[in-house]
Structures are given as structure tokens and as C-alpha cells.
Structure prediction request, 586 residues.
Amino acid sequence: MTSTFLPDKRTGPGVGSPPPAPDRSTGRARRRALHWLTAAGFQLPALVLFMGLVLLPMLFALYAAFFRWGGFGMPSDYIGGENFTRLLQDGVFLGDLWRCLVLVVLSLALQLPFALAMAVLLNQRMRGRAVYRMLFFAPYVLSEAITGILFGMIFAPDDGFADQVLGKVGLEGLGGEWFADPSTVMATVFLVMTWKYFGFHMMLYLAGLQAVPRELTEAALIDGASAWQRFRNVTLPLLAPTLRISVFLAVIGSIQLFDLVWVTTAGGPDHHSETMAVTMFQYGFKRYQVGYASAISVVMFGISLVFALAYQRFVLRRDLEGATTTMRGDGK
Amino acid sequence: MAVPLLYAALSGFKSTDELSRNPVGLPESWVASNYTQILGSGDFWRLIGNSTLIAIGTTVLIVAVSALSAFSFARFAFRGREALFTLFTMGLMFPFAVAALPLFLLLRSLDLLDNPLGVILPQAAFGLPMTIIILRGFFRQIPGELEEAATLDGCSSFGFFWRVLLPMARPALGTVSVLAVVTSWNNFFLPLLVFTDAQWWTLPIGVQQFQGQYSADYAKVFAYLVLAMVPALAFYSVAERQLVGGLTAGATKG
Prediction:
């Protein structure tokens, strides 16, 4: 992205007008104050909304996590870190962490490479390319709830499409309880996740591939590089920023997974597909242990934050420069 | 990829009876009654209406508020700007689930439960970071000379924003609007918390309830699912370019 942004001193009101002759310093100070007020005025609605409905609830969750609290009135029964020590002994929550890790690893090891392969394939000139793109991306625009219910029915035991098709072709043995069997439920959830999200990652990669100059791969071709060498040594490095973003989104998505699990299994059977968000929901809205549920929220946030900061610090720094650290040293 | 969707669409034309005998093939006789029954019920249309109302409300609010903020980020140098912008970009990684509980309590104390504003306002708040980032990037590309010219012609900064910048930014505004509509349309968690009264249910909630109610009548549920997907898919086919553009821009700049 090429961006032209203004030199600081010439932005805002009063641009281009000559400085007022008498008493320069107070005039400038007043103008600066006016400038600041105008800028702040534009920020006000966004700030109010963001502070009130995003930051404030987050901070309140952090506060409530230190209380035994049922969610009515203000929290008053302060118990220190007890909710957090309880989490460390809660088998369901420890399971949530494990399942989250499994989803992250599966996403990175299977879903994203698959999306990359499809993107490389669809980046070639081929017939019906636009149709495939639309088709693969379509699941992404469907709501997770609707997707979940659809697959809940497809993977229903015995009567579901999956089992019936396997039965028809003589592979009954492969069919089963899918969502209802503790040993297959996570694989099934992952399958649905992949169906829903791989098109999104594929689209990201396609956008990234568009930015790879054709001359580079052509030059490599002339130099006698094989298709794999061209991909490995030319395309992949140039795609790296896109890959890093996609990995980031996949990990954060896995940490926060809720809708899909809620409508398919609600965490069952016997907590075998429960995620942190589902456990939080169960405690907070079903069992009225709001303090404990807040502690789960806080841990979830902590994990997201630590991951995000570490990722930003060690992996993303170069990519994010345009977004977070531009125009350093101004604002004086 | 398309198999599950095709399967659902075909199944909707079967009777549940036939579905268990003949899961894969075309329907023996095309039964449209599953679809027509749903289309003929006021409930279904009310869900669509609610989802539409909430999506439009959210989008208008997000775009208006973000445009003002992004304008200020892109065209003003002011103390604390970088810190503030970092705060918003950090908002990208705030999981909604974390805020869900206190947000619910806050909405309850503000008496916004079973009120569309109870969904619109938080959705807008959580949508701000992404929208501000995309719009800021776009606003910064508009040359500064334009602003100088407008100012010399006696335009105030709001006048420049309103009369010059916004009309020029129409493509970007379209992109963020499409993103906001899709996100709002698909939201499940928040309406689930806010609406206990069936009168306000949105489409994803309605589908879940319907499936619970008719869980034995597979064909009917399939027909319902298919009809529930139609608006999103139709919108996608119209706004594909904007949506994909927005997602890739948002993702690579986030």
C-alpha cells in the first residue's frame, strides 16, 4: 500500500494561512488547542462506544473473577485467587486447554496447507476458476449456527447423510456416532471448521498470490527451476506476510471457538468437545457461577493476549509496522 | 464443498420418510410443501425482518462512528494518537466471549435486553477496530492537497470530511458496510444472550429453535436451513468483490 500522509504541521484547520503576526506563541497555543479539540471531537463517539461496551466489560470481568458471585447485585464475596486455583484443578477446563491446543495444531498442520494448495491451484489460469473461488468461499458467509446445524444433521448417527452414504458403498464400519462418540467428536468438529473456514484462508492466500510479480516466477522458470523450487523459493517467501496473518487468525479463532460447538454438541458428549468459551457459558449463564465464569474469561483473554503480543513481537513486527507504528515521533 | 449444500437443498424437497429410504438421489417426487409452508409462515419473515433491521442498524452505526474516528487518525496529528490507535488495534484480539458476561449484566442494568439496541450497540463496538483500521488506510491515500484546497475555499474540517472525503471514499465505505452486514447477520452468541422473547429472534437463533422443535422431521429442517442460507448467499453473490476486498485488506493491515 502506498500512502501519502500529510506532514504534521499542515493538517487540520488553518492550513496554509499565514501565522498571525502579533503574539505568536499564544496564538499558536490556542490554535494547537483548537486542533486537538477538533481531532478529539471526531474520536469521541468511537471512544464512548468502545470504552463502554468493550473495555469496560473486559475490566469488569477481570474484577469479578476475584469474587464468589452469582451474577445478581454487585460482587461482594471476595475470595482472592481462589477461582483461578480452582481452574487448575478443573478437569473440564484443563481439557479445554488440551482441546484448544489440538485444534490449533490441526488447523496449522492440515487446514492451512490445504487452503494454500487450493489457492496455488486456483491461481493458475483454468476454466471455471471464478466459480470454484465463489464455491469455496461461500461457506464462510453462512453463519456458524446454520453451518453447525446442517452438519449436525449430516453427521447424525444412522439416519444422517454421512452414515447412509458410507452404508451404501459398503463402508458401514467407517460410519458411526460422529458428534456423539467421545473419540470422534473433535475430529468431526475440526472437519466442519475446515469446511467453513478454509475458504477464508484460501482467499487471503489468493490475494497474497496476486501480489507476487509474475516476472519473478517466470525468471525462475527460465533459470530452470522446477515447479516445486519456484513455489518454495519464490512464491512462498513473498507470501510469508499473508501466511503469518492467516496463522494468527486461525490460532485466535481456535482459542475463541464457540458457536459451532454450541449448536452441534454444546460441548458433549460428556465435555469431550467443550471449548473454553462453552465452559464459560455453561458456568456463567446456566449455573450462575458468574465469578468462576469470569475467571475463565480472564484466562481466555490472557491466553489470547499473550499469544498476540508474543506473535506481534517475534513474528509480525515487520508486517504490522504499517498498522501500528507509523508516523512515530509526531503528535507533538 | 458444495455437496452438503446441494444435499440439504434436495432433501428439503423430499418427505422425511423418503429421506431415510433414499438419502442420496434426486427426490422421487418433488415435494415443495416443506419450502412453501415455511415461506408462508409469518415467523420466518419476522426473523428475516429482525436480522435485517439489526444488520442495517449496526452497519450505519459502525460506519458513521468509524469514519469520524478514522478521519481523525488519518488527517490529524494530535497528542496520544498513537496510543489511542494501538488501543483500537488491540481491540481486534479481544474475544467477544470474554466480555459476554459483564456485557450481559451491563445490558440488563441498562434495560436493553429484548431490545434490538442491545445487539446493535455491542456489535458496533466490537466491529469498530477492524473498520477504523480499513478506513484509516483508505483515508490516508487521499492526497493532502485536496484538503488544503478545500480549506482555502473556506471548508471547515468537518465540511471537508462530509463533502469531499466521504464521497471519495465510497468504495471503501461499501467494503466495510458489506463486512458489517455479514458479521451482524451471522452473529449468534449475542442475540442468544440478549433476546429471550421470540419476537426479537434473529435468523440463526430461529433456525436453532426450529431444529429443536422439529428434530424428527428432517426434511422440514433441511428446507428451513436452506431458506435461512438464501439471504446470505444471495448477498454474497452480489457483494462478493467488496467482501473479499474488505477481508483481505482488513486481515493484512490488522
Observations:
- The CA atoms of residues 234 and 240 of chain B lie 10 Å apart.
